[in-house]
């Protein structure tokens, strides 16, 4: 590292420049430096503000790392996994089709013949490769069957929790593998959209139960389903009531206050927190409105335009997920939710180093990597 410091930051700038780098940044800087040396923009031959040309070393080119990161990200592409959960018939499958058919991906919309969405009967993932301005993204939607339809709905959140934990487990196993893949496929659920029925009253015990348990393992974004069935006053009242219910039940939905990074972040997220839950309307059918073809729901009294923010908040939800907060949602998944899972699993394995553990623990032991586990902790 010392050698690299000397190359990157010729004296006398070494202390100042290296002080800027946290230990977290080192691998990034070093690999980028060696990996793309020929791509680096050359330091100006004449010093930008220097007095003697050729002798001013004040430009080290740190800003070029942004370009290197951009190029790397463009090559790798992005993965984003969204899950939808809620009672049967609330429009989960429809909303996901809306997302794919909306501006996110007009080109890769589902085939037209699939016009009637059947009842979902099993957890199913659908992936779409989307490309915009050279940036590739694999958007995966995990559709789940309506839940809470039984007479006894106790622990009905459990299969969803198991699915989410299974994805963490897969990722953990890949990380622990001796021959690790260069890039681990990420099937972790980055965000779970929870559909609240448009009752106009308050959260039901089953909603509270689900979100209370699941908000500890995944980013939850609650939405009011089929918001076209509520009047504007009902919608405002219901939204306020839900926020109150979430507060009194200690449910922390996305964006969680405690993970705001700075004052600017807090300001932006505070606005979102005031809007939550988004009142959404879904549709995968297009209609002619004022000469334009728009996704909407046609009724006797007019057409609800799904992507029009004066009609509903679908576009706000889409922008939050895709345009403004995708990276943050992924970061929280990886550094908070997955981390909690990882630490718990590794502690469990350490508590049973001789493989006495049953069930889940034995998976780790059967991988034959107990040394790695104890080393990690
Ligand atoms: N009024 C209204 N109806 C909707 C909306 N979204 C979907 N629907 C209708 O509600 C019905 C059920 O929609 P689905 O998308 O199949 O519901 P789901 O939540 O996936 O249902 P399961 O798969 O059984 O869990 C369909 O007839 C949709 O056309 C909406 O925003 N407003
Ligand atoms: Mg469905």
Automatic annotation (TrEMBL):
GO terms for cellular component: cytoskeleton. Pfam families: Septin (PF00735). Belongs to the TRAFAC class TrmE-Era-EngA-EngB-Septin-like GTPase superfamily. Septin GTPase family. One of its GO terms (biological process) is cell division. PANTHER family: SEPTIN. Keywords: Cell cycle, Cell division, Cytoplasm, Cytoskeleton, GTP-binding, Nucleotide-binding. GO terms for molecular function: GTP binding. Residues 76-348 form the Septin-type G domain. It comes from Denticeps clupeoides. PROSITE patterns: G_SEPTIN (PS51719). This is Septin. It is found in: Cytoplasm, Cytoskeleton. The keyword GTP-binding applies. It comes from the Eukaryota.
